[in-house]
Specification:
By secondary structure, the chain is α/β, with parallel strands linked by helices. Helix content is about 50%, strand content about 20%. A hairpin with a 3-residue loop joins β1 (about 1-10) and β2 (about 10-20).
Length: about 300
């Protein structure tokens, strides 16, 4: 069956249309993304402004129309960190319901971690004994660990150290300083002090920042390589490092904040991170297909 997921995050709003068979295998049909930066409002104001809500309504309505033109059997909108961090999350939900004429779910941090883990693990060809999935978004970072084939992670945590939030807190200027970087690392280290998971056999990193880092340093990286990238971003500037690479300007803007978070996560997991092929939207699409099958 064909299902569609609209993912409303701190950085962007994304659309995934996928065909999911009865065994859970998934094929991507269409994908799109628009950067709205809802997390900026949530971080600076504690709420999403009316202007941003109007932009969100237009994007969500367009994505829903495209999904229905493709012939999806079920459509759902998921809201991640903005729904947990903005005081007017109810307004966000109302706008999305009106725009999409479909169900809207504000994910708890735990649900976000579970879906990201499922989406990433389902795309693995060869399963190690235990897999950690690091889902770094604009507003938060989730870490989930479990055994592939078990259906769900057995250990998970969420932290409000997303790439956009760290960038806005410590790197508000175009050219951050080494002192800015030192402060960011110190704060992220403190915020992630409770991240003390069992050591996994493999770790997958998902999300736009993790993929952007992979385009610069390779698809497998550890804390040392990430620390070196953060140093380069301060020394050379993000535009110089991103030149000629398939990384959007919007993503480059939050790359340093995200790199600092990924470095500390890799250090605490004591493992290297590998870019995952699936993630939150893929996990949500599989869960949506199960619901549709059960209702049929």
């Amino acid at each position: 069956m064909r299902v569609a997921v609209i993912d409303v995050g701190s950085n962007s709003v994304r659309l995934l249309v996928a065909a999911v068979d009865h065994g859970g295998a998934m094929r991507e049909v269409e994908r799109d993304r628009v950067y709205l930066r809802l997390g900026d409002d949530a971080y600076h104001l504690g709420r999403i402004r009316a202007r941003k809500l109007d932009e969100l309504e237009l994007v969500a309505e367009r994505f829903a129309q495209r999904a229905r033109m493709i012939g999806v059997e079920r459509l759902e909108t998921i809201v991640t960190a903005p729904g947990r961090q903005a005081s007017n999350a109810d307004e966000v939900v109302d706008v999305l319901v009106d725009a999409t004429r479909a169900s809207v779910v504000v994910l708890s941090a735990e649900d976000e971690a579970r879906l990201a883990w499922e989406g990433a693990v389902s795309a693995i060809d060869t399963w190690p004994d235990t897999v950690a999935v690091v889902d770094l978004g604009g507003g938060s970072c989730e870490v989930a660990i479990g055994r592939p084939g078990s259906g769900a992670p057995t250990w998970l945590r969420s932290f409000e150290v997303g790439a956009l939030r760290v960038t806005r807190a410590f790197f508000p200027h175009t050219r951050p300083t080494r002192r800015d970087l030192w402060k960011a690392r110190k704060s992220v280290r403190r915020l992630l002090a409770e991240l003390q998971p069992p050591r996994p056999h493999a770790t997958l990193a998902v999300g736009g920042t993790a993929r952007a880092v992979g385009r610069i340093v390779g698809t497998r990286y550890g804390a040392e390589k990430l620390d070196a990238l953060a140093d380069r971003l301060v020394r050379e500037g993000r535009h110089s490092i991103g030149a000629g690479l398939d990384v959007t300007q919007a993503r480059l803007e939050t790359l340093l904040g995200g790199t600092v978070v990924l470095a500390e996560v890799a250090r605490r997991l004591d493992t290297k991170l590998e870019i995952g092929r699936g993630g939150l939207r893929e996990g949500a699409a599989r869960a949506l297909a199960r619901l549709e099958s059960a209702a049929a």
